[in-house]
Amino acid sequence: MNAFKAYKACAPIAWSPNLYITLVRGIPGTRRLHRRTLEALRLRKCNRTVMRWNTPTVRGMLQQVKRLIVIETEEMYKARKQKEANHQALRPPLVINHLPASASDSS
């Protein structure tokens, strides 16, 4: 089982009111019907995420292009964004003193 299937399998999609959909594979080389479906979902570029209501119509569209996307619930999306924010958070600056210890003693 690859990582995306494992990632999608842990989400109880039926219970979530909103779905966060991310396009993870490229559009070139896909069927015209799949391109039209992605266009209807407003997914035009890779690694872009859109939020859609969890309706049978949207779930049917997602089923059609499931190999190109990753589906997340609201909790999963917020947890992922929080993890990314923590990873990119500013760290305290390193202060390095370039003066040798003996130079400050001789003054």
TrEMBL record:
Domain of life of the native organism: Eukaryota
Keyword rRNA processing in record: no
Any GO BP annotation: translation
InterPro entries: Ribo_uL30_ferredoxin-like_sf, Ribosomal_uL30_bac-type, Ribosomal_uL30_ferredoxin-like
Domain Large ribosomal subunit protein uL30-like ferredoxin-like fold: 20-69
GO CC field: large ribosomal subunit; mitochondrion
PANTHER family (UniProt xref): LARGE RIBOSOMAL SUBUNIT PROTEIN UL30M, MITOCHONDRIAL RIBOSOMAL PROTEIN L30
HAMAP family, per database record: Ribosomal_uL30_B (MF_01371_B)
Family affiliation: Belongs to the universal ribosomal protein uL30 family.
Name under which the protein is recorded: Large ribosomal subunit protein uL30m
